[in-house]
Design goal:
It contains 15 helices and 16 strands. By secondary structure, the chain is an alpha+beta fold. The protein folds into 3 domains: 2-70; 96-323, no CATH class; 395-522, Transferase(Phosphotransferase) domain 1 (Transferase(Phosphotransferase), domain 1). Helix 4 packs across helix 9 (291-316) and helix 13 (475-490) runs antiparallel to helix 14. It is globular and about 70 Å long.
């Protein structure tokens, strides 16, 4: 009887999820057809009711599974990581990267006990070799990825725009956090979320091109990825093969290749490439709208994590200097950069000046510019993820964001410069894991305080409050934009109330960046 009740709840959860998807399509169609706002609001209210109902169902389902004691959660997360990743060879294997990735390692994903019970009951032949019951953060992460086919905000079906980050980036991070001795991986992930000429991310490819994702281990790029929200998968595949070529082969020995993934729409595929950028192995093409395929993707990430551990061990035994790593400098064609700066009403002299101010301790990155006849090279350190992909999780880290962001702005303002684009993708954590300091990057749009803007010029994140009455972007505009960012980061969080006055004061345009750093909230 208990199992039948669990089965009924599971069916109701699935039915409600389908209704949520149908309701979202109704909303989109009504907006597209310009239906009355009252009708759109009614559709939105119904979707909200369904979402709340689905949440209640899921909680009831989990309680019932645990109460009937169908499964007992057991296991140490660090041991689960070791079991999931598999035993590590003592050195670089004779079979090379392909052999390392394809080696048959019996691995199972940890999932919440209620999900284990439901999936085994649904189809034991598919799931019994893929999952194991466990509690804890790692199991919660896997459970969410297997069950949830919606994007992080719950408003649209999961696509590659957020899918690869949730299925690859977040799961990699959870594995690293739960790993015990012998399985601890030091790496940096950099994502090129917007068109930019001065990301803090290391360029993992030949000069002039850049993948959407680069995972760096011991100053060598180990994984590159190309994400396209919609469009042609073959195009993403061709792009990543072009972008993943290694520039300095001798730095990689004894490792004989790198890893990559290509993604478009709902589809994702992993590859091994040799050091000439030729594909030597590829997985099947996964459809991330399918829960079984999402589980397969996570198993591939576990295999990739294993490969990175072995690659890192070999590379750490043969260290290279940051200035020698081909994946640190980013070469920019001078003509392209000059045209880009002019289109955004700034100039090369300002570009050089703003990159010369940071020291990694004043809220701005240390950067070295090397200008040759036809190229400008920007060398920056490797930092942690940006706020778009790793927002602050508690009030202490939120205050660290406020301090670092305002410190970076005050430094620019003291030199008569304006950043103009302090958004979440342009603020990065100084350390890959710690969340105690941030750096303001993407300095290419910085301009002098005297810069004149035409009436039709505006950046995507500006609103009616950004410019002053004479359509100038001022120091107060930077502080205002910072206030918008901080307000968004605090929204719906436990510290939203205590941070409200601070955010309101920044939005008032009455405080300079220096004044804001002295605000009682940051004391």
């Amino acid at each position: 009887m208990a199992q039948q009740s669990i089965d009924r709840l599971w069916s109701e959860v699935q039915r409600t999820e389908q209704q949520i998807g149908e309701q979202q399509k109704k909303i989109e169609k009504a907006i597209e057809d310009e239906k009355p706002q009252k009708l759109i609001d009614s559709y939105t209210e119904e979707k909200a009711r369904l979402v709340a109902y689905e949440k209640d169902l899921r909680q009831a389902w989990e309680r019932m599974a645990l109460q009937t004691q169908l499964i007992t959660p057991v296991g140490d997360p660090s041991k689960v990581v070791a079991d999931l990743v598999g035993p590590l060879p003592s050195g670089w294997p004779l079979g090379g990267l392909v052999g390392l990735i394809t080696e048959k390692v019996p691995r199972k994903l940890p999932v919440a006990p209620w999900l284990y019970a439901a999936l085994i009951d649904e189809d034991a032949s598919v799931w019994q070799d893929k999952i194991v019951p466990l509690d804890g953060k790692l199991a919660a992460c896997v459970t969410d990825r297997v069950v949830n086919a919606q994007s992080t905000d719950g408003n649209e079906q999961l696509t590659i725009s957020g899918g690869s980050e949730r299925l690859i980036g977040h799961f990699m991070q959870r594995l690293a956090e739960a790993a015990g001795d012998g399985y601890q991986l030091s790496y940096q992930t950099h994502r090129d979320a917007t068109v930019s000429f001065s990301r803090s991310a290391a360029s993992a490819v030949e000069a002039g091109t850049r993948p959407d994702c680069s995972i760096i281990v011991a100053l060598r790029h180990a994984v590159t990825g190309q994400d396209e929200k919609q469009g042609d998968f073959n195009s993403a595949y061709d792009d990543i093969v072009k972008k993943a070529a290694v520039c300095n082969v001798r730095h990689y020995a004894p490792v004989d290749g790198t890893l990559a993934y290509a993604a478009a729409g709902n589809y994702l595929q992993f590859f091994c490439l040799n050091l000439n950028g030729e594909v030597t192995y590829e997985t099947q093409q996964f459809d991330i709208s399918n829960p079984v395929h999402r589980a397969e993707v996570l198993l591939c990430v576990a295999a990739m994590f294993r490969a990175l551990l072995v690659m890192g061990k070999c590379w750490h035994a043969n260290p290279i200097k940051a200035e020698d790593a081909e994946n640190v400098p980013e070469g920019l064609e001078y003509q392209d950069l000059d045209a880009y700066l002019k289109a955004n009403f700034t100039e090369l002299v300002t570009f050089k000046a703003v990159h010369d101010l940071g020291n990694d301790k004043n809220g701005s990155p240390s950067a070295t510019l090397v200008v040759t006849k036809d190229k400008v090279h920007v060398n920056m350190p490797l930092f942690g993820p940006d706020l778009l992909h790793a927002p602050p999780e508690n009030e202490q880290s939120f205050k660290a964001v406020g301090r670092g962001l305002l410190q970076g702005l005050s430094m620019l303002h003291s030199k008569g410069l304006r950043h103009r684009d302090p958004r979440a993708p342009n603020v990065v954590w100084q350390h890959p894991v710690r969340r105690d300091a941030v750096i303001l990057v993407d300095l290419d749009l910085a301009c002098r305080s005297s810069a004149e803007l035409p009436e039709d010029f505006r950046l995507a994140d500006w609103d009616e409050g950004t410019l002053d009455g004479t359509r100038h972007y001022t120091a107060a505009s930077d502080v205002y934009q910072a206030g918008k960012l901080l307000q968004a980061l605090a929204a719906d969080k436990s510290w939203a109330g205590s941070a409200k006055q601070f955010c309101d004061d920044l939005l008032s345009k009455q405080l300079t960046a220096v004044d804001a750093l002295r605000h009682s909230y940051l004391a």
